[in-house]
Amino acid sequence: MLIGIDGNEANVMEKVGVSMYTFNLLKEFHKHADSSTQFITYLRNTPQTDLPEENDNFKYVVVSGSFAWSHFFFPLHLFTHKKPDILFCPAHYIPRFCPVKTVVTIHDLAYFYYPNEFLPKDLFKLKNWTNYALKKSSKVISVSENTKKDIVKFYKIPENKIQVIHNGFNPSLLSSSPPPPPISPSSPPLLSKYILYVGTLQPRKNISALIDAFVILKKDHLDLSLILAGKKGWLYDEIFEKVKNLNLEKSVIFSGYISEAEKNELYKNASVFVLPSLYEGFGNTPLEALAVGTPVAVSNNSSLPEICGDACLYFDPNDTIDMAKKIDMILTDPNLRQILINKGKEHVKQFSWESCAKETLEVLRDPEINSG
């Protein structure tokens, strides 16, 4: 069997979100490549050096073209070259007029709930190109039950067409040795007591409310800091302006994009990890924090209760007092901290990229999809 993959999301320098999903699946698929299951990964550009190495059963094909790549250049290549038996598209979109059966992964439908956070052209693509992919694909993979419900709600896709397969997380976090490489001089300082947020800086992540909760906490925790680690997203200026207006520049630290080693160090030294998001399709970062024994507090909405289970504390993301209260409980109650740490390390054993890849391959190999 020859499995085709649109690998463009993984072929970038700074990998977050869907890029990490695609990258980790490529690494796992590479382990499964043999004479009976071969892979061909299609890219716009030359493969980055961190992608899995080619071998007889795992190949890359660079398809030239920029504008309308997925609508013209990629499908044209599929029509004129040897076709895979199935094409896996890990990020919402599939090629137009595709001559191959497809399986697509949908990560979240945040754009229906928060349309103002997207540029008009991006919103149009997300709504319409995702709709096309859902209708034309032979099978749909959803990263959570919550996202599956949203797909059914907004696109009226039959439930039996959708397979829920949870993401994995970085397995190196579970290892206590060897220690991670030292962080670079430009990295945020490792403070003695800090709240950590990891993710894109954008309104949907509700960072403004986290800053308000932080102000409340500072009254009783004078030595407490807040590290916001992640790339600047849509409408991030408001977050920076708020920190400035509240005179919090010395205690709220913006790290920008950080490497995996830097991120792991921040997780391991944080007093508490907080995800105040208003909507998450899955939510990898709480799992990463739980894996290293960092207590976690997250919003009580979307997919987060499904993914985090009973291993963390939940708060109303629209109630900064409740958010501050739950964070304070973790900071001040050593017994609660230990309970959450123990539960967290057990809970994350349910998630791995190995399992994610195995279940995804089962879908791609499904005889019902590949027959006819």
TrEMBL record:
Positions of the Glycosyl transferase family domain: 192-346
One Pfam match = Glycos_transf_1
Q: Name one GO molecular function term.
A: glycosyltransferase activity
Keywords assigned by UniProt, alphabetized: Transferase
InterPro entries of this UniProt entry?
Glyco_trans_1, Glyco_trans_4-like_N
Please give the Gene3D superfamilies that the UniProt record associates with this protein.
Glycogen Phosphorylase B
Q: Where is the Glycosyltransferase subfamily 4-like N-terminal domain?
A: 17-172
Task: Enumerate the SUPFAM superfamilies for this protein.
Answer: UDP-Glycosyltransferase/glycogen phosphorylase (SSF53756)
Concerning CDD domains, the annotation shows: GT4_MtfB-like
Keyword presence, Cytoplasm: no
- Lineage, top-rank taxon, reads Bacteria
List the coiled-coil residues. Answer: none
The protein here is known as Glycosyl transferase family 1 domain-containing protein
